[in-house]
Amino acid sequence: MLKYFEPNKIFSITSKAPKYVLFLFIILFSIGLTESLFLSPEDYKQSHSVRIMYVHVPAAWISIGIFTTLTVLSIVGFIFKIRNFFLITKSLAPSGFVFCVIALVTGSIWGKPTWGTWWAWDARITSMLILSLFYLMYLLAWRIYEKSDNVLKITTSITILGIINVPIIKYSVDWWNTLHQQASINILSKSTIHESMLFPLIIMTAAFALFSLLIFLMKYNTELIKIKNKGLDRL
Amino acid sequence: MINTFIFMNGYGVYVWSAFVFTIFSFAYLYTLTAVQYAKEKKKFVKKFGTLNSESAAFAKSQSINKEILSNYTSV
User: How far is B38 from chain A (nearest CA, A)?
Assistant: First the structure.
């Protein structure tokens, strides 16, 4: 089945897809912005500052999701020697890093009116900062060791070490007393967020996911053309 | 009405700065990626132009190369 996902076969799709994904992203992001800035209600306690949630939470979710995907693909790619998986992980990492930075910065901005401080060495915030450092290490490893045979070993090791931090991020608010609030959205139990706030949050999450897909497709195509450029040099 | 929307009971500066930072980050990442993509495509077309007819015909026989050349102007 994997042969259908070979770069040579899917390039005709990945090269045309970005314009459609961009179009969908613009539509969804516009709806998300309208919902989060105009239509959604203010919180009874946090007032309008709650609107920061609509960029902060999706960014955090997606950066964690991308890192988990990086790890799974790196391990499977390393074990079964599937080089295409490493092209995928290399193309996913930049958007994951940017989402992680967005989550940290918007969290810090939200912290000032809510907790009275821009930064606290709280378990949730610190573990997110550690995730951003793992992203940075991953991106730097590709840049420094790209021509080395060890690059796959090094990048896979970074993701394996980094994934230990992911459950810590998720459960930090339950394991320790933190400034950060506990999760309002639960898959297995009842969510404590009102529908009027959940809807814009879902729209913004979908828009952010589309943006990361757009960046991934453009990066993936760039990497494929880079390989083809090297191929032309050999002719 | 407009004042409420802009100042948001004194939270406007925080809310707007968070959204503006997000949009700028998106714009920066998109531009950077698009520039790299266009640069690689340009490099490919330039290299392709320097090939002799035999190598060019061989290279063009690969569907991915044909696709890159045909998509040269699009994103």
Answer: 8
